[in-house]
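Re: weekly structure request thread

Next one in the queue (247 aa):
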Amino acid sequence: MAKNTIRLDKMLANMGIGTRKEIRQLAKAGRITVNDQIIKDVSKHIHLEKDLVELDGHFIQYRAFIYLMMNKPAGVLSATTDRYDEVVIDLLEDTHLHFEPFPVGRLDKDTEGLLLLTNDGKLSHQLLAPKKHVPKTYYAQISGKVTSEDQDKFKRGVTLDDGYLTKPAQLKILHTRDHTSEIELTLTEGKFHQVKRMFEALGKKVTYLKRISMGELILDPELDLGEYRELTADEVALLQKTYEPNL
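Done, posted below.
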């Protein structure tokens, strides 16, 4: 088989047009064309870059991968399936579900914000690999007064309840009062409940947590909780960079 070629029925099935049987029926009805020629035999191989495939006169653009940015709401699991709770995949439309995307990493059930979903395993591995040190920034509301002394401790790393010393983190104080504070925290690792546990180690409690960026990808402020959109080509390029330590 030539490079960048694929069976027509497989290409259309991969794009969510229908099952192989349904696609054969569409072809028999004369609704599928390749380069303006009606195609009845969907076992025909087509070139993904050179051939123009249309269904009912509408161009079908093939793509292997999909990249979605979601503003995850609290109460929804960062998973593909769960027996009891709603998962982020449940929030997707059928046009995106057939690509079988999965969440890249996870956000805690009660955490909101930026969640990337894709079926690109290579990119997912790159973003999650510890050696890549991809920074993730969170906005949080804290019960307790966050101080410059806390910032210094975060810069050196914080010892968690299990004895693990975290990597250095950047703590930015947005507002602080006697009993509450608002902060932004940038991490380059993702231990279980890490943000919450880091503040607990300092005698403070996270009352609200939202991830606002991952690498150079920033959560779209136009996305309401539970909404999502496809990434732009520029945004995908940002994620495909090789990240190095910068903290």
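The chain has a mean pLDDT of 92. The radius of gyration is 23 Å.
Next request, please.
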